[in-house]
């Protein structure tokens, strides 16, 4: 049975995946030729549209140039006498208005003699032998577009030599001549530069003499690093032509620009165009892979519908057993498997409720214990103070009674503190001072209390009635055992979240065994303060954890210092 299950899990997805893979591979073989032909044809059509767009843009620019040269002719040359100041003024004004596209203008008579030229124009010798002059002279009805010429080497600026036959006025007579306009190539270059212009796809522009008017790699051509090999093929093809050069197939498409004699050539590597069609093949292979993944998924889904719920339930049980009591099983699977998950969740919910109840009871127990410990701290102090007031009344010390009652009221006001268990260090110091003041009345001023705290320490929190039992212990076990007055000094510091207070006295000190008994609750002094210190120590650990509490440094005859370690703020 086990072997049968394993064979089904393996054989079924393999057979299905192999069958569909074979079908898809067959489809790829059948349609590869069709797709290749289609994409080649589509690429040629797209390149043709791009070529037509470039050609249309160039013809629009040529039309703008024609309008400009005709405007100069009809509004200036044919209107004003060339010897008049108005003629020169209008011609210079025209250059000024069109300075972004016009470099210079020149007017020659029919014999090639200069009649007028702009200030930026470099007069050409033997003008009548120049191609632009001869073309304009021979074709009097059209505008002639000549070569490209470098005029500003420092700015790498070129112009087109554009000429036309004109009739001008001199001494009141109409005479024949040639107008030469030098027009910046920037506008034409900008149109052609919009094409991709990579080594695998670019365009260039030739004049009627096969001279290069624009090429994206003209600098490489000038330096001999690049040679254009498609010129002859471009000029001999009517629409497009595929030629082999440098081990690659090249699609060459030429287009004549109006009557200028210019030819624009678009060159594209067939390899790069065919590469774009590979995306379809990649898509087909991706579909094949996707289908295979889907087949495997469907196969494993059936199997996992039986096994996955069990594995998930086991993992959930492991999490629950490790303490993650919020872990719940997914109620999934078929039949009894789903019922197992449901009943596990019911059991987990009940168990979590019971544990929450236990924790809640434990917290209430700790709160009750803290309050009980605090109530046990100082019941004898009130009795002793009231007894002292009674004896003051017998002695007629009314003023002292007033002061003691005032201090006692302040002491118990801070003790009650509106039911708050946590106070600031500053309030605890005020409470301690009230206690020491009352004790000084009792013991005739034998105690001096000195405090020194930073503002940060004063704002930290502390359980109320923490310092008073410690001060009481210093007085009863240290200072009163001496023959002279004693000093109690309280200071503190902050160490991150922890606050540490230091309470020092110059009393007689204690034996280490006595300190150990006090901190473990196994002993007390003859006057009962030891039990209060044990309660303080235990209360601090309940509030702040085991690292908190009291640390004693004492030696017989050398006084005592207590470190009060408070944990993270609980105010």
Q: Briefly, what is this?
A:
With 571 residues, this protein is of the alpha+beta class. 53% of the residues lie in helices and 22% in strands.
Rg, alpha carbons: 53 Å
β-strand amount: 15-25%
Largest sheet: 5 strands, antiparallel
Query: Based on CA inertia axes, which overall geometry fits?
Result: elongated
Q: Which consecutive residue ranges, at least 5 long each, have pLDDT under 50?
A: 1-9
Q: How many H/I helices?
A: 15
Helix content: 40-55%
Q: Report the strand count.
A: 17
Distance between the termini: 68 Å
Helical/strand content category: alpha+beta
Helices and strands in order:
Elements: H1 2-77, H2 85-97, E1 102-109, E2 114-117, H3 131-138, E3 143-152, E4 157-170, E5 173-184, H4 186-193, E6 201-206, E7 212-214, H5 218-222, H6 231-236, E8 240-245, E9 248-257, E10 262-269, H7 270-321, H8 336-375, H9 379-395, H10 398-416, E11 422-424, H11 425-443, E12 447-452, H12 455-458, E13 461-463, H13 467-479, E14 486-495, E15 498-505, H14 512-520, H15 529-544, E16 549-554, E17 560-566
């Amino acid at each position: 049975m086990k072997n049968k299950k394993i064979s089904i899990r393996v054989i079924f997805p393999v057979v299905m995946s192999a069958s569909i893979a074979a079908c898809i591979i067959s489809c790829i073989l059948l349609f590869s030729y069709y797709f290749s032909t289609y994409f080649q044809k589509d690429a040629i059509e797209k390149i043709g549209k791009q070529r037509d767009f470039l050609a249309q843009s160039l013809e629009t620019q040529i039309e703008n140039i024609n309008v400009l040269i005709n405007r100069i002719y009809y509004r200036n040359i044919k209107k004003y006498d060339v010897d008049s100041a108005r003629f020169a003024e209008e011609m210079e004004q025209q250059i000024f208005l069109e300075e972004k596209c016009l470099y210079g203008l020149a007017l020659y008579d029919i014999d090639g003699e200069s009649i007028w030229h702009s200030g930026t124009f470099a007069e050409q010798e033997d003008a009548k032998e120049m191609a632009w002059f001869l073309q304009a002279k021979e074709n009097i009805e059209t505008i002639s577009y000549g070569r490209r010429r470098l005029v500003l080497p420092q700015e790498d600026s070129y112009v087109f030599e554009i000429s036309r036959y004109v009739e001008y006025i001199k001494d009141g007579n109409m005479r024949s001549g040639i107008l030469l306009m030098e027009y910046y190539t920037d506008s034409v270059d900008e149109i052609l530069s919009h094409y991709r212009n990579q080594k695998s796809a670019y365009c260039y522009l030739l004049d009627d003499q096969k001279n290069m008017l624009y090429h994206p790699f003209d600098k490489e051509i000038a330096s001999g690093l690049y040679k254009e090999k498609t010129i002859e093929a471009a000029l001999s093809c009517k629409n497009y032509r595929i030629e082999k050069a440098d081990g690659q197939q090249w699609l060459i498409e030429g287009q004549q620009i109006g009557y200028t004699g210019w030819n624009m050539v678009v060159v594209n590597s067939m390899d790069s165009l065919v590469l774009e069609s590979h995306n379809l093949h990649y898509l087909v292979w991706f579909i094949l892979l996707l289908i295979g993944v889907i087949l495997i998924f469907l196969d494993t889904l059936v199997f996992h519908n039986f096994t996955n719920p069990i594995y998930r339930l086991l993992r959930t049980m492991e999490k629950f057993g490790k303490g993650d009591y919020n872990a719940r099983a997914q109620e999934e699977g078929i039949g009894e498997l789903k019922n197992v998950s449901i009943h596990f969740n019911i059991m987990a919910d009940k168990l979590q409720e019971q544990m929450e109840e236990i924790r809640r009871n434990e917290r209430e127990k700790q709160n009750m214990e803290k309050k009980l410990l605090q109530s046990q701290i100082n019941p004898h102090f009130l009795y002793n103070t009231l007894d002292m007031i009674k004896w003051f009344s017998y002695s007629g010390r009314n003023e002292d009674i007033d002061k003691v009652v005032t201090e006692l009221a302040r002491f118990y006001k801070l003790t009650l503190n509106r039911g708050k268990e946590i106070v600031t260090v500053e309030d605890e110091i005020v409470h301690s001072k009230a206690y020491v003041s009352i004790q000084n009345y009792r013991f005739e001023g034998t105690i001096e209390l000195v405090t020194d705290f930073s503002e940060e320490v004063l704002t930290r929190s502390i359980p109320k009635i923490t310092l008073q039992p410690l001060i009481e212990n210093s007085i009863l076990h240290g200072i009163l055992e001496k023959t002279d007055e004693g000093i109690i000094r309280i200071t503190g510091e902050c160490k991150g979240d922890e606050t540490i207070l230091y309470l020092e006295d110059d009393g007689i000190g204690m034996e280490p065994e006595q300190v150990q008994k006090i901190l473990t609750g196994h002993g007390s002094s003859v006057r009962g303060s030891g039990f209060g210190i044990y309660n303080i120590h235990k209360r601090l650990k309940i509030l702040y954890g085991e690292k908190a509490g009291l640390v004693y440094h004492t030696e017989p005859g050398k006084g005592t210092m207590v470190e009060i370690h408070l944990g993270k703020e609980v105010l």
